[in-house]
Design goal:
The protein is an alpha+beta fold. The protein has nine helices and 15 strands. It has two domains: 7-194, Fructose-1,6-Bisphosphatase, Chain A, domain 1; 205-336, D-Maltodextrin-Binding Protein, domain 2, CATH 3.40.190.80. Helix 1 (7-14) runs antiparallel to helix 2 (23-45) and helix 2 packs antiparallel against helix 3. Bound molecules: 6-O-phosphono-alpha-D-fructofuranose. 6-O-phosphono-alpha-D-fructofuranose binds at residues 117-118, 120, 209, 245-247, 263, 277-278.
Length: 337
């Protein structure tokens, strides 16, 4: 009887492709998978284990933290801090870099994560996810600083997400394509269900929060207007629209059937001194790495996301990603503008 390829076996078989990888990288991925399995369990149980609803605290972004935001962050730390695979951790849910306990062995990697992205969907039972990005840690530094994390996305060793949807799926790239694993709850293993994922270069589906239309800049307004004109307009085809308000779900759909996702900067965000809504280090960069590895593209509208030099760990960035021909069209509109 066939068991299938587990995530751990897949990483071991492929770790020769990972720059300088030893069993430590496999161990790190395993720790992340353990945290994701526990988060999946709590997300799935929801009200049964009293994890729904909000806390009375806010994160560094000034956003009210859901109970599961805080719990997911604690689970990620718990899964990683004593196993000696990371040197430090940064999270959307923590103002500053998390340093390991003094007696904990330091590892070769830095982990950045959004422990539970899209958590506003939790209470309405819509898909949410965990996003993670892995960098090499500076050698011989016991407590890496925020500055040690501020590397462009091209320096990522690996990136991935876990989607807590109708099925729980972990999607991963180590720089050699994109692989998808589905959680078999019967024996608690992520099993390989798809590899060498490729995004169609063209699409008829876009994802944007259309309630912000009055704030959009001209290139975005032009692109969406043309899509909405459908077959009678300059695109000569009809488009569909999706907006889940959960980036992990949107990216997974795009990896599966193509599409373009946009969270551009706009007049509303600019008036609040923001450069987009999504965070560069633990949302845009890992998703851009995955999308590019699947043959798609990821841009700010002005430049490739993975080439942005970070200034601070929680900085925001405009995001356009997905089918590469659509991203290029949006880039051309921005550059023309
Ligand atoms: P809005 C979730 O809060 C998130 O960070 C992404 O996952 C999602 O794409 C976006 O924000 C949704 O933003 O403004 O539509 O609620």
């Amino acid at each position: 009887m066939r068991i299938g390829t587990t995530l751990t076996n897949y990483i071991i078989q492929n770790q020769r492709d990972i720059d300088g990888a030893t069993g430590e990288f496999t161990g790190l991925l395993n720790d992340i998978a353990v945290a994701c399995k526990k988060i999946a369990d709590l997300v799935n149980k929801g009200a049964l284990v009293n994890v729904l609803g909000a806390t009375d605290s806010q994160n560094v972004q000034g956003e009210t933290q859901k109970k599961l935001d805080v719990i997911s962050n604690e689970l990620m730390i718990e899964a990683l801090r004593h196993n000696g695979h990371i040197a430090a951790l940064a999270s959307e849910e923590m103002d500053s870099v998390y340093h390991l306990p003094a007696d904990a062995k330091r590892g070769k990697y830095l982990l950045l994560c959004d422990p539970l992205d899209g958590s506003s969907n939790i209470d309405v039972n819509v898909s949410v996810g965990t996003i993670f990005s892995i960098l090499k840690a500076p050698e011989g530094v016991a407590n890496p600083t925020e500055q040690d994390f501020l590397r462009p996305g091209t320096k990522q060793v690996a990136a991935g997400y876990c989607l807590y949807g109708p099925s729980t799926m972990l999607v991963l790239t180590t720089g050699n394509g994109v692989s998808m694993f589905t959680l078999d709850r019967d024996f608690g293993e992520f099993l390989l269900t798809r590899e060498n994922v490729v995004i169609d270069a063209d699409t008829k589906e876009f994802a944007i929060n259309a309630s912000n239309q009055r704030f959009w800049e001209a290139p975005v307004r032009r692109y969406i207007d043309e899509c909405l004109q459908g077959a009678d307009g300059p695109r000569e085809k009809n488009f569909n629209m999706r907006w889940v308000a959960s980036m992990v779900a949107e990216v997974h759909r795009i990896l599966t059937r193509g599409g373009v996702f946009m969270y551009p900067n706009d007049a509303r965000l600019k008036s609040n001194g923001k450069n987009g809504k999504l965070r560069l280090m633990y949302e845009a960069n890992p998703m851009a790495f995955i999308v590019e590895q699947a043959g798609g593209a990821a841009s700010t509208g002005q430049q490739r996301i993975l080439e942005v030099q970070p200034d601070e760990i929680h900085q925001r960035i405009p995001v356009i990603l997905g089918s590469r021909n659509e991203v290029k069209r949006l880039d051309d509109y921005h550059l023309g503008a």
